[in-house]
Predict the 3D structure of the following.
Amino acid sequence: QQQVKQSPQSLIVQKGGISIINCAYENTAFDYFPWYQQFPGKGPALLIAIRPDVSEKKEGRFTISFNKSAKQFSLHIMDSQPGDSATYFCAASFVGDYKLSFGAGTTVTVRA
Amino acid sequence: DTEVTQTPKHLVMGMTNKKSLKCEQHMGHRAMYWYKQKAKKPPELMFVYSYEKLSINESVPSRFSPECPNSSLLNLHLHALQPEDSALYLCASSQGNGLGTGRDGYTFGSGTRLTVV
C-alpha cells in the first residue's frame, strides 16, 4: 500500500517552461516532506524539503507548495532547463520513523 | 565532507558467490540505511541502523546480512542471491538523533549496481 501517491508518471516540458509534479498522502502523522532528484546511475539527491507549518518553500527555481488540509504537496520547477531532466521522487516521513515513504516517481524531460 | 561513499560501483556475482557492499560517511550521522531500487521504481527500505544497532529490518531475506562495524561504516553481506535480486543498492545516512530532526541531512550514496547471474 503506497502511502504517498505521485503524478504524473512522466512529463515533457519545453526549455523555459514550468514543470509541476503533485503528491498526495493519507497519513496525517507525516511531518516531513522532501523531494529528491535522481539522474540515471546515481542515487537520489535531496532537492528541497518542507514541514507542514509552512505553506510554501522556494529554493532557486524549485518551489514546494503544501496544502495541509488537502493533504497534498507539489513541486514546481520554474524556467526548466535540459539539465533538470531526471526522475523526481516526493517522499514523506514522521517523527520517530526514519523510513521515507516514497512516491512512485516522475520522469521529467526538458526539450531544448 | 557531505557525502555517502559506496563501493563497489558495479558488481556482478554468481548465485553461489559471497560478496559485500560497503558504505561510508563522515558527517557524524547516527542513522544509516540500506535501500534497494529496481529500474523505474522508488527506493525500497531494507534495513535501518540507529546508533550502530539494527533498528528496522523490513522482512528482508536472510541472504542479505547487514553489519555496522562503527558509526561511519555500513556493510551489506550477500550470499546465495537470486537473479531477481539484481538492482541498485543504495546506502543513506541521516542525523538520526531521535529528537524530531532524525531525518535531517538524509543523504544517499550513488549506489552499487548489482547483477546476479
Q: What stands out?
A: The longest strand of chain A covers residues 86-94.
